[in-house]
UniProtKB/TrEMBL annotation, chain A:
Family the entry assigns: Belongs to the sigma-70 factor family. ECF subfamily.
One biological process term in Gene Ontology: DNA-templated transcription initiation
InterPro entries with a match to the protein in the record: RNA_pol_sigma-70-like (IPR039425), RNA_pol_sigma-70_dom (IPR014284), RNA_pol_sigma-E_actinobac (IPR014325), RNA_pol_sigma70_r2 (IPR007627), RNA_pol_sigma70_r4_t2 (IPR013249), RNA_pol_sigma_r2 (IPR013325), RNA_pol_sigma_r3/r4-like (IPR013324), WH-like_DNA-bd_sf (IPR036388)
Signal peptide: none
Gene Ontology molecular-function annotations: DNA binding; sigma factor activity
Limits of the RNA polymerase sigma factor 70 region 4 type domain: 102-153
Residue ranges constituting the RNA polymerase sigma-70 region domain according to the UniProt record: 15-74
Keyword terms, alphabetized: DNA-binding, Sigma factor, Transcription, Transcription regulation
Listed CDD domains: Sigma70_r4
Stated name of the protein: RNA polymerase sigma-70 factor, sigma-E family
Pfam name, any one: Sigma70_r2
Organism name: Streptacidiphilus jiangxiensis
TrEMBL record, chain B:
Protein name (database record): Uncharacterized protein
Keywords associated with the record: Membrane, Transmembrane, Transmembrane helix
Membrane-spanning ranges: 43-64
Keyword field contains Transmembrane helix: yes
Species annotation: Streptacidiphilus jiangxiensis
The UniProt record lists the keyword Transmembrane: yes
C-alpha cells in the first residue's frame, strides 16, 4: 500500500519511541502497540499537512495522548495489582527488572491524567507549559495533577518499602 | 533535580525499556492471557488476481527455504497459488487499504488460508506458520462471512493480533480475491471511524465445526 510521502520513514524512525511512551501510559505492551497504531491511523490521512508543520512528532504524540485519555473503557479495564503483593517474586538478581516492574505497578495506580502528566514530565521531559498544550489544559492544572501524582507515588513507595521490610524481617 | 525526580526518571526509563523486550521474556503468561481474551478479526481486502489456470486435483506442498523465501504452495494442474513468506510488507505502518472487490464469489471452489504468527524474536514481523485449504461448505462459509461484512478504509494493522491470515479465494480457473485478515486481534473501541472490527471467528475453527 502506498502511504503519504514520508509517513513510512517517520514510522520506521519513531515507532519505537512512541511505543515506549505508550507503554508507560497504558502500562501494557499490547495496549501500547494498539495505542500507537490507533494514533498512526488517525494521523495517516493528514500526514501531508502534518509533515509540513514544525514538529510532526509532537503532533503525533499529542494524538497518542488524546487517544489514551479519551479511551473510556479499553485502557481502564486492566489488571490492577497491589504494589506490594509480589514483592517476594521480584526479589531476585534482576534488579533493573524489579525497578521497572515496580514503576509499572505504581503507574497503574495513578488516574489516567495524572499518569500522563508524570510520564510527559519525567520521561518525555516536557515542560509544564508543553504538557498543558498537549493535554489541552492550563499549566496550573498540570502543576496540581503532578503534585497529586507525586503524593500518591510517595505513598505507594512507602507502602512498598514497609512491606519489603516486613518480608525481610519475617525471614 | 531532586533525588526523587531522579529516581522517577530512572524508573520510568527502565520501565519504558521493557516495551521493546520480546513478549515472552517478561510477559509470557500475561500476554497469552490477553490474547486468549481477544476474539476479533480484522479484515482488509487487497484486490488481486494471482493466477489464471485450470483447476483439477489439488495437492499441498510445503517448501521451507531461507529468510524471505519460505513458501507454502497449493498446486493444481496449471494453477499455483502461493502463500507469501510474509502477509504484507512489514514496513507498512497500516495493514492494508481496501482496493479490491468488496464481494467474492459466494461459492468459491477453494480457499487457500495462509496463516502467519509473530516472530518470537521480533514481534513486529510475521512468519508463515501453516497453510490450509478449504473446500465445499467450509469455503462457502468463509466467503459468506466475508461478503456480509462491512468495509472501511484504511484498515489498520494490529501488531498484537494472535495471528494474521491471507485468504485466497479461487473460483473456476482463477484466484478472484485476496483477503488479509487478523484473527484474535487487539481490540479498542474509542474511535468510530477506525475501530471497525469484523468479528469473524477463525475460519478454520468455523470450517471444522461446519464440516
Amino acid at each position: 500500500m502506498d502511504g503519504p510521502t514520508g509517513f513510512s520513514d517517520y514510522v520506521a524512525q519513531q515507532r519505537g519511541a512512541l511505543v515506549r511512551l505508550a507503554y508507560l501510559l497504558a502500562a501494557d505492551r499490547d495496549a501500547a502497540e494498539d495505542l500507537v497504531q490507533t494514533a498512526l491511523v488517525r494521523v495517516w490521512p493528514r500526514w501531508e499537512r502534518v509533515s509540513q508543520g514544525t514538529n510532526p512528532h509532537a503532533y503525533v504524540r499529542k494524538v497518542l495522548l488524546s487517544v489514551f485519555l479519551n479511551a473510556r473503557r479499553r485502557w481502564s479495564v486492566r489488571e490492577v495489582l497491589h504494589p506490594g503483593l509480589e514483592l517476594e517474586d521480584t526479589r531476585n538478581a534482576y534488579g533493573h527488572v524489579d525497578e521497572a516492574d515496580l514503576m509499572m505497578r505504581y503507574l497503574r495506580q495513578l488516574p489516567r491524567r495524572q499518569r500522563a502528566v508524570i510520564v510527559l514530565r519525567y520521561y518525555a521531559d516536557l515542560s509544564e507549559a508543553d504538557i498543558a498544550e498537549v493535554l489541552g489544559c492550563s499549566p496550573g492544572t498540570v502543576k496540581s495533577q503532578s503534585a497529586k501524582a507525586l503524593v500518591k507515588l510517595r505513598a505507594l513507595l512507602s507502602v512498598g518499602t514497609q512491606l519489603s521490610r516486613q518480608v525481610e524481617g519475617g525471614r | 533535580m531532586s533525588k526523587e525526580e531522579e529516581l522517577l526518571r530512572r524508573g520510568l526509563t527502565a520501565a519504558a525499556s521493557r516495551a521493546a523486550a520480546p513478549p515472552d521474556l517478561f510477559d509470557k503468561v500475561a500476554g497469552a492471557r490477553t490474547r486468549a481474551r481477544r476474539n476479533r478479526t480484522r479484515l482488509a481486502v487487497a484486490g488481486g488476481t494471482l493466477a489464471v489456470a485450470a483447476v483439477a486435483t489439488v495437492t499441498a506442498v510445503a517448501t521451507l527455504g531461507g529468510s524471505g523465501t519460505t513458501q507454502v504452495t497449493t498446486a493444481a494442474a496449471g494453477l499455483t497459488a502461493s502463500c507469501p513468506a510474509t502477509p504484507a510488507d512489514p514496513q507498512h505502518a497500516l495493514f492494508n487499504a481496501w482496493r479490491g472487490p468488496t464481494r467474492v464469489d459466494p461459492a468459491p471452489r477453494r480457499v487457500l488460508v495462509c496463516s502467519y504468527v509473530p516472530h518470537t524474536t521480533n514481534p513486529l514481523t510475521w512468519r508463515l506458520a501453516a497453510s490450509t485449504e478449504l473446500t465445499g461448505p467450509r469455503a462457502a462459509t468463509v466467503a459468506g462471512r466475508f461478503n456480509s461484512a462491512p468495509t472501511a478504509d484504511p484498515r489498520q494493522r494490529c501488531l498484537s493480533a494472535g495471528h494474521e491470515e491471507l485468504w485466497f479465494f479461487m473460483t473456476g480457473t482463477s484466484t478472484t480475491a485476496e483477503v488479509r485478515a487478523q484473527i484474535g486481534g487487539c481490540g479498542y473501541a474509542d474511535d468510530g471511524t477506525h475501530a471497525v472490527s469484523w468479528r469473524y471467528p477463525d475460519p478454520l475453527t468455523e470450517g471444522s465445526a461446519a464440516s
